[in-house]
Specification:
By secondary structure, this protein is an alpha+beta fold. The chain contains 15 helices and 17 strands. Strand 8 (202-209) and strand 9 form a beta hairpin. Helix 12 packs across helix 13 (321-338) and helix 13 packs across helix 14.
Length: 439
């Protein structure tokens, strides 16, 4: 069986602790072998006296260590302190000494007995942990920690400041339950839940609400915390207040949208007739050139309709220009209701209109013009509590891919329109692509 001395020796090695004893009868000091090792000395070295032992401590700590021993000697009360000593090799270590008074014999003044341990690594790690804890507490970013079920266990002062909730109000509650509100984006919440379910970290921008009901934007970063065995300890969320930058960005986005809309309106005004809201003459020629180019490249049919309101000057003279404006607006509305999506109707003059018909031969163009003529003639236009009927004359022709230009095609439909006027108005005439006369 191991002797008491052997047990003590092995225990000291396992615990990296030594012990010391001061005999108060003669102030003789005893160090165990492990105490010698902690000092960087050979365990077989002579036992030191008290002053020699105290001299190993850094000068800045010696007075405090001496006070601890004097207090223990004077009162007999338990002492526990940490101090720095410089080993025999010059290395500075943190040591912890715990001492108490022990009476062994009636006529003996007693002993001071203590445990001595090198805690350098523990001390450095604890100091680091204190710094980390202080940084977490004092950082401007709001930090929140939960248990594996997502219930809040801790938050720092920054989150308390921005949310208005105390830690006790938040503990045991889910962050979303406390911090989300009516305008928090549900899609963002769904994304967060999905990432948590898949055990994936995420970063989102989300609208939070404080205790007073006020809202604020944060950039939220969330990750899972795990132990050394990959067991889930909980989740940590770091929130950066981005309310001001979000406001600036949203205002900028709205301003960009406003300018895009304004530019769109300006482009529309530049390319459309303000009265009828139909493409104007310039826009018609641009579109006609594109369609004619496509017709010529691919040999696809293209037709053009030109129509002119009958007796429009007389209507203006008898009912006034406001009535004439109403009629022009009604023509734009009628074209939008009657034509196909790919057809392109434009107002190119006072009462003169064109219709480009891609993928349409002359027969299809004639049928469409006739349908539009009939609808126009049959549709009463309300003016100042009464209604008027308006008619128009139409000219139709199909493009010649081999040699037509926009001007030559427009001249041909213009001749067809003139023929419709000469024939009595309110009718359609067409000019075939290879003919010089109309039918």
């Amino acid at each position: 069986m191991l002797s008491s001395e052997q047990i003590i020796t092995h225990s000291e090695r396992l615990s990296a602790s030594g012990h010391w004893c001061l005999d108060l009868a003669d102030d003789s000091l005893f160090w165990s072998p492990q105490v010698f090792r902690i000092h960087g000395l050979d365990p077989g070295a002579p036992q030191p006296d008290v002053e020699t032992a105290l001299a190993y401590y850094l000068a800045a700590d010696q007075d405090r260590v001496r006070e601890k021993f004097d207090y223990l000697r004077r009162t007999g009360e338990y002492v526990d302190f940490v101090a720095r000593l410089r080993r025999h090799d010059g290395e500075v270590r943190y040591v912890r000494s715990i001492g108490e008074y022990v009476v062994r014999e009636r006529d003996h003044p007693g002993y001071l007995l203590g445990v001595f341990r090198d805690i350098t690594e523990e001390w450095v790690d604890a100091r680091h942990q204190r710094r980390v804890a202080l940084a977490l507490e004092e950082t401007a970013e709001a930090i929140i920690m939960t248990d594996p079920d997502g219930l809040i266990t801790w938050c720092n002062s920054a989150l308390i400041r921005v949310s208005g909730y105390s830690l006790s109000e938040l503990q045991g509650r889910k962050p979303g339950q406390m911090l989300q509100g009516p305008d928090t984006d549900p899609d963002t919440v769904a994304l967060m839940r999905d990432r948590l379910a898949r055990d994936e970290p995420f970063v989102v921008e989300i609208l939070n609400y404080g205790r007073d009901g006020g809202s604020y934007w944060v950039r939220l970063s969330v990750h899972a915390d795990r132990d050394e065995h990959e067991g889930l300890l909980g989740y940590t969320g770091i929130q950066i207040d981005i309310t001001e930058s979000k406001r600036i960005r949203l205002n900028l986005e709205r301003e960009i949208e406003r300018r895009i809309e304004l530019e769109s309106q300006l482009r529309h005004l530049a390319s459309h007739d303000a009265l009828s809201d139909m493409p104007n003459r310039r826009h018609f020629f641009e579109q006609a050139a594109r369609e004619l180019g496509r017709c010529q490249r691919y040999g696809r049919p293209l037709s053009l309709v030109l129509f002119d309101l009958d007796a429009f000057k007389g209507l203006n003279d008898s009912l006034g220009h406001a009535a004439g404006d109403t009629v022009i607006r009604s023509i734009g509305a009628l074209c939008r209701q009657t034509l196909r999506e790919q057809d392109f109707a434009a107002r190119i003059g006072g009462e003169e209109f064109t219709i480009l018909l891609p993928e349409t031969g002359i027969d299809g163009a004639y049928a469409l013009a006739e349908r539009l003529r009939q609808r126009l003639a049959a549709t009463p236009i309300a003016i100042d509590g009464s209604s008027v009927h308006v008619t128009a004359s139409f000219g139709v022709s199909e493009a010649r891919p081999e040699d037509d230009t926009v001007d030559s095609l427009l001249a041909r439909v213009d001749r067809a329109l003139y023929a419709a006027k000469e024939a009595g108005r309110d009718r359609v005439r067409r000019m075939p692509a290879g003919a010089n006369s109309n039918d």
